[in-house]
Amino acid sequence: MAGEQGDDPNPNPDRRRRRRRRGALRLSRLYSFACARRPSVADDHAESARIGGPGFSRVVNAGAAALSLEQQQQQTAATAEQLLVASASNSISTTKYNLLTFLPKSLFEQFRRVANVYFLFSAGIAYSPLAAYSSSSAIAPLVIVIVATMIKEAIEDWRRNQQDGAFRDAKWKDVRVGDIVKVEKDEFFPADLVLLSSSYEDAICYVETMNLDGETNLKLKQSLEATSTSLPDDESFLDFGAVIRCEDPNAHLYTFVGNIEIHDQEAQQHPLSPQQLLLRDSKLRNTEFVYGAVVFTGHDTKVMQNAMKVPSKRSNIEKKMDWVIYLLLFSLVVISVVGSIFFGIATRDDLKDGKMRMKRWYLRPDDTEIYYDPNNAAIAAAFHFLTAMMLYGYFIPISLYISIEIVKLLQALFINQDIKMYHEETDTPAHARTSNLNEELGQVDTILTDKTGTLTCNSMEFIKCSIAGTAYGRGITEVERAMAKKKGSPLIADMDNGNQYFQPEGKVAVKGFNFRDERVMDGNWVNQPNSHVIEIFFRLLAVCHTCIPEVDEESGKISYEAESPDEAAFVVAARELGFTFYQRTQTAVSLHELDPVSGKQVDRSYRILNILEFNSSRKRMSVIVKNEEGKTFLFSKGADSVMFERLSGSESAYREVTQQHINEYADAGLRTLVLAYRELKEDEYAYFDRKFTAAKNSVSADRDEKIEEAADLLERDLILLGATAVEDKLQKGVPECVDKLAQAGIKIWVLTGDKMETAINIGYACSLLRQGMKQITITLETPEIIAMEKGDVLACEAVAVWEKGRRYGGRSRICGLPMETTGLSPPAALEKPKTLAATASKDSVARQINEGKKLVNASSGETFALIIDGKSLTYALDDDTKAMFLDLAIGCGSVICCRSSPKQKALVTRLVKTGTGKVTLAIGDGANDVGMIQEADIGVGISGAEGMQAVMASDVSIAQFRFLERLLLVHGHWCYSRITSMICYFLYKNITFGVTMFIYEAYTSFSGQAFYNDWAMSGYNIFFTSLPVIAMGVFDQDVSARFCLKFPTLYQEGPQNLLFQWRRIVGWMAYGVASAVIIFYLSTASLQHQAFRRGGEVIDMATLGATAYTCIVWAVNLQMMITVSYFTLVQHACIWIGIALWYVFLAVYGAMTPDFSTTFYMVFADALAGAPSYWVVTLLVPAAALVPYFTYAVVKSWFFPDYHNEIQWLRHRERAHPDPESSADVEFGHALRQFSVRSTGVGVSARRDAAVVRRLNGTQVHHADSPQTQAS
């Protein structure tokens, strides 16, 4: 943003002179017919009538003279309120907290965890006489856990806040509604603006909207004539004023309704349309500057209206952990109730026949409070229940939460530091922006990805072509390279960079041009047999386009601004092959051509008579030009499906050969276009020009049909030249990554705002689509629906609004619908065509979905691809059809949603997430992807060159799509395996500890006496057993990274949740009970008659408790040794440090005064250290406690192995037999590899398998745009 009105009081005088010179380039003939026509009052009458009504109440005062002081004083309170709201700040925030909401929201997040609620309850009991141990030892662990977790949350959100300010010009936040702003070339628009004027005389500008809709082609915008003529430069805005009345803030990117009333223009209102709206986060291209009035700022802008609030995401593992805690709480309540009942019975038995029996004399039932009063045994039992709930609290692992938080934070650091996910070219590492969802990365079932900037590099490369039946070009595509690697080809698979391999020495690589063929390069094409055809072919590439050349004044190099990247690639290819397009004027294009006769470059000019635009229905583009000799030519390029049917049968001799080449290019993942031409006669062109001009000037609803009818007159009997093949340049490694993810069982959906043809071609390039795959296409681009949407009753009648005399299943039909479903009689149908259009559209989509489901259900073993456009998606996402749509989509191997708005992307993501109940991951790079990134369980942002909105809204950011393979298959699997093992281990060690206290309580008639010292109990989870489990969560690897990538099926342990099933959870809990029983009874039996002191005293409660505690510390730490799969020095150190800390605690804590150490006073020095039986017991009892697990692990690994057990086995056998030929497990290894390569319908592997099948069957598959099975 260059500045606002009044920022430059002394404007540069050169601006006026530059303003006068800007008439050199006028592009009137290049405007698309729909875009360039200035809106008329008739066109906008219906929309303008809504201004001031509900939803259309915004009033914006633009400029200094917008309202006089008298007008401001006469404003109503409502208008003043509107203006006050309209002046909202332009700053935005993607953070989860702020200073006011941090404490309440963070506390809410902490106490969403059930265990924290329980420990808060226990802490309250600790301050009452019911406490089993001191209050400080009860409250300290809870405080540590809560504070540590809140600090982590604050740090992560602060980093988000820092990034919110890092990518915005500081002036953006100061922009207010009504400001006049000036935006210069290659800058982003700071807010939603109404275009007032531009550097072009006809007030046009080019806008790149990739951040909004994912499209890289430039959009043409044009201001109203009423503003552009009176606002040529900065000074003209000093006295400018206008009142803009428009719609309220909404999420519709492609609609805008409003009007503008300009000061000093006799109160005339001019209608505004989307053609005058410049959206925030889109970029100004190929235009020196524009002026605009701000209408929406901050969160009112359309891009932010499409965004969603930052969600509070919790992983499925954490949600299930809540249910585990519920189970433990239920168990805690049960044993507390059982203990209280027995305590009540024992308390009542202290009184018999009204007399005290003094059986439990140490409780003094004859002189007690209500807690042990035999006369009130029931009340005593009730109070005991509260004591027991606190006493057995170690069933609930409070330190589990803080341990997991620490582990996740360290896991995130390892993800950030992974050198194999570092992109050296952009100096961008992976970044786990939040660590709460690490384990979710290992459970992804569906990936929903954007296309532009996510799968692709936003660049096209001209790589091959077919001219006059001869194939040219020796480039290697990403798809070919990936297939070669699968086959083990030594010639192609070893080439990491095809560009470098084919790059001649001393020649600099050219962006957009990867064509290598000595037969046509360096002017050698003149020696080819069909050189005259090659000449016309290259000339067509240089002329048939709408590109604009830009010449660098210093170097003289020519670059091109194009509406689409493939157009730029064609023009660059023509330049490199001797036909340089260097100038465009209002009526002509100029080339430097290689003259085949003289062999020198000559300048030639071609007068442009007409441009017939490309669109999704025409699938072709044509230009009509006149050369310097006065001959008129039609140059045309388009999809083979529409071009071949327009060829001349007599003058296209190499049609079949060209079709074969196109099929080969399609198999290689290339985008193909057919090039053809014809020479026009003067009278033929004159007749066309009259019809075409009349059609362009038409203002009726069928204007486009008239233009198409006129164009169709000439685009016939074309002479075939050949075909081009460009690579929609994927990011490096995308096909291989897609293949690996597909083998891992992950489904991939593409959600893009791009056109259907573009999305399909990308699907082929990245192997989501392949030759032979049946495509189910759901679209509303049918003549009936189009006619009804326009509201043209006559056209609707022509295509069967009222099918008189016809019957369909015995029912009359309106617009192809059963009459009773419309609720309209024939007259009403004629009066309400738009109502019928919506009903017909919904019915058509539902019918296509049902037909697609029948097709999928009827076939066995075939893989289908579902392709749906944005218009159809609107109806497919309705409440009564979305279940059918999801059912169809799940049954397909790949899904591509085209022309999707940001909100539709978010809604599709929500549908998949809620409908399947599985983990979804959304990945994108632009602001248009923020909604789906926030809606998905995991959001991944690509750190691309176009803005950082997606990254700021994401949970994890990476630089390239290919890093997703390692992020999921390696880090995701590791995190899932580690976290689930941590939780199960925590349950085991806490239940082992808690059950020993329960058994001891049973021996003491449930009197509420703790088996262990209170500070020893507090230190159990914090000091003596915490470090090993944290080390396991950070460093353990059940399978190495190499094997994770080699056997992608291993990843299915996560989506199937094999490692956190209830069977495994309950098994670990049962093992904890068994260990507690073994430890308690063996310890008690071993020490029952042993004297510990010189005086012959036998053990007391403190001695027995300390011995049992020691056995537990040894048992759970040794259990860690046999649980982990990958030992490191850190894990060794943590295990031995935990054990050593217990002995240090016994000695140091026992040496303190009895007032502090209580029952543990000198217990180690006087009783335990000098007793041989203590050391023997603490050696043998833990070993005995491990026998059940060791036995189970051996049996399971041998007879019932999991995926990772099989791979571990293979890894150990490879270590034992490094020579694969002598390995005893060669057959096993081969079988495991075959098992790991899942039979998938998408990916490079599927493409290779399908090609093999076609060769075996001897079947030639013809590529007509793409093989489609259209359900319509």
Describe this structure in words.
Residues 951-1202 form the P-type ATPase C-terminal domain. One of its GO terms (cellular component) is plasma membrane. It catalyses: ATP + H2O + phospholipidSide 1 = ADP + phosphate + phospholipidSide 2. The chain crosses the membrane at residues 138-155, 323-346, 377-402, 986-1003, 1015-1035, 1065-1084, 1104-1127, 1134-1152, 1172-1195. Belongs to the cation transport ATPase (P-type) (TC 3.A.3) family. Type IV subfamily. With 1272 residues, the protein is of the alpha+beta class. Among the domains are: 95-158, no CATH class; 178-296, Calcium-transporting ATPase, cytoplasmic transduction domain A; 458-490 and 510-680 and 718-729, Calcium-transporting ATPase, cytoplasmic domain N (3-Layer(aba) Sandwich), CATH 3.40.1110.10. It is 45% helix and 15% strand. It has 47 helices and 37 strands. The protein has a ten-stranded mixed beta sheet with strand order 15-36-35-34-16-28-33-32-29-37, with helices on both faces. Strand 17 and strand 18 (470-472) form a beta hairpin. Helix 7 (114-126) packs across helix 13 (377-391), helix 8 runs parallel beside helix 14 and helix 17 packs across helix 18 (565-576). It is elongated, with a radius of gyration of 38 Å. It starts with a strand and ends with a strand. 47% of the residues are buried. Residues 1-48, 67-87, 163-170, 493-503, 792-817, 821-831, 1221-1225 and 1259-1272 have low confidence and may be disordered.
